[in-house]
Amino acid sequence: MERKLLTKDSYRSLITKLIGQNYQVVAPVKKDTMIDFLKISSFDEITEDYIVTVSSAKTVAFPRNEKLFDYEKQNKKLTQQDFDFDSIPQSVLIGVRPCDAFGFHSLSSIFCWDSIDKIYTTRLERTTIIGLSCNKADDYCFCTSAKGSPGSTAGSDILLTKMTDGNYIAEIVTEKGAKLVADFSDLFTADGGADKESLLAKVAANFSVDDVLAKINSKFEDEAFWTEQAMRCIGCGACAYVCPTCACFDIQDESHGGKGHRVRCWDSCGLSLFTLHTSGHNPRENQGQRWRQRLMHKFSYMPDRLNTIGCVGCGRCSRACPVDMNIAEHCMSIIEN
Amino acid sequence: METQNIYLPYLMQIDKVSEDAPFVKTFRLKFINPEDAENFSFKTGQFGEYSVAGVGESTFCIASSPTRKGYIECTFRKAGRVTTALSDLEEGNTIGFRGPYGNVFPIDEWKGKNLLFIAGGIALPPMRSVIWNCLDLRENFKDITILYGAKSVADLVYKHELREWDERPDVKLVTTVDPGGETADWKGEVGFVPTILDKMAPKAENTIAIVCGPPIMIKYTFPILEKCGFADEMVYTTLENRMKCGFGKCGRCNVGKTYVCKDGPVFSLKQLKQMPDEY
Known about the structure:
Chain A has 337 residues and is of the alpha+beta class.
C-alpha cells in the first residue's frame, strides 16, 4: 500500500481547500460535552480529542431521518416527486476510526442485499472516507476481538496515523483515496518511513468473535439465558442508534396539508413496538427475545446470510447504555455458557 | 418506472370498491401509468406495500390471481392507522403500491395433484389468489376442495365468489362458522375449521394442503392433517409478520435467520418446523 507524508499544515490546507471547493466536509466536532460527526465550515472546528464519537459515522450514508420522495395530493389525484439523486453532495468524511470505517462494509451488505438501495449507495459512493488510526483506546474498545485493529485500513479510502510530531502517515487504500491524493498532490509528500505500529493504541483481544459465531446458534432456544442476559435492558434503543452497523429502520409519512414526504428513520429491534402486529400479537414479546434478536442478527444471521459480522468492536453501545450493559461481556458470556 | 428508488411506489387508481364483510373491503387497483401496467407482473402468493399519502404504508398480499390481467386486488380489514385511511377512500382515489415482493406458491409443482385449501376468516384473501390461479388452470389439477370458516356468517368474505365456487361442479366447497355464528337460514357447517376438517377426513394421497388462518386455527389444523397422513412437505402456508420495506432491510419480519419478506411469505410445513417459534 502506498504511503505518503501529510504534515499538519498540509492537513489544514487540504481540509480548507476541500471546503473551498464545495465539498461537504464532515468531521468530529465538539458540541457542548459531546463529540459527533458534523458538517464543518472551517478546519478549526475539528477535534481529535476522542476515542470514538458518540454517534457513528454511518449518518453520512444512512442519516437519522431522510426523505425518500415527496408527494402532493389534489382532490383524488396524487403526484409523486422522486428522490433527487443530484442533491447528494460530494462529501469527505474525516477522522473516522477504523472500527467505524469497517462498519460501512456491514451496512452496505444490508443495503445491497438483493435489491440495491440506491439512496444509500449513492451517498456512500459520493463520500471519500479519510480514516484516523487510534492512538488511544479505553476499556470499552474491543476491535481486536472483532476482527479489527486500531490501525486497520479496511473501509477507509485514506488512513491517517498521527505521528508524535503532529504530522500524519497517509496510507492510500482505495482508488477513490488515490484520486483525492492526486487532486491535491502538492500536499502529500514522500513518506519518512515512521513505524506505524508503535504509534497505535493497544487493545487487548479478550475473546474471539469466531467463538461467539460458533456458539450462539446453540443458545437460541435457551430462554433462561436470554432472560438473564436482558434482565437489565430497559429497551431504550440507544445501542442501535449509536451503532455503526445497525440498519433497522421505520418508514413513516410526514405531511402538511396536501403536501408531504415519505421518510425513513432509524429504528431498533430493542423497542417493544418494533414487531408488534396490529392484532396485538407480538412475535418478540419480551425483552429477552428482543435482546436475542439483536445479538443473533449481529453474530449469526448476518454472518450466515450476508457473510459479514454485524459488530466492529467500537464499544459505543456499551458506552451509551443507561444500565451499563457491556456487549463484550455478553459475548464472553455466550462463549462461556 | 424510470427510477431506481426502491421506495417509490407505483400510483394506482381505485377502480372498484367492494365491502366483503363488516370492516373488510376489497379494492380493485389499476396502474395510472400505462407503462407500469405493461411491465408489471407477479405470481400467486406475493405481497406488496399499499400506501395512503400522508398516513403511511401497510403490508398485505395481492388477493387477485395473476391470470386476471390489467389489475390487482387487495382485501383488508380496517384495523390500524393505514387500513383505516384506506377504508375511507373511494373509487377514483389514488394510492401507492410497491411490489410484488416475496416468494410464490409453487403451483407448477402441484400439477396432477388434488388441492385442499383450508382458510379461516380474513386469511381467505391470500388464498383467493392461488385458488383462482388454480381454477383458471383447472385442467392441471385433480380434485379441488375448499374449506373456509369464519366467526359468523357475516364475517365470511367474498360471499359472491363462495356462491360461484359452490355452484361449480369441479370444486367442492365446505363453509363453516364458529358455534353461535350461524343464522337461521345458514346451510353450511357449524364448528371450528379443524373440527370440520377432522370430520371431512381428507385423503392425503397425491394431495397438497394449503392452510391460511389465524395462528390458533393453524395450530389445531396441522395435527389433523398429520393424522390424515399429510407429509410436512405436502402442506403449505403463508406467514405474516410486521414489515416496513418488503425486501430484507428494515429488520422486522425475520423468524430466526429466515426473512418472511424474502424467503417467504410462502413456506411448507417442513420449512416451518425448522424455524424457531418467532412468528
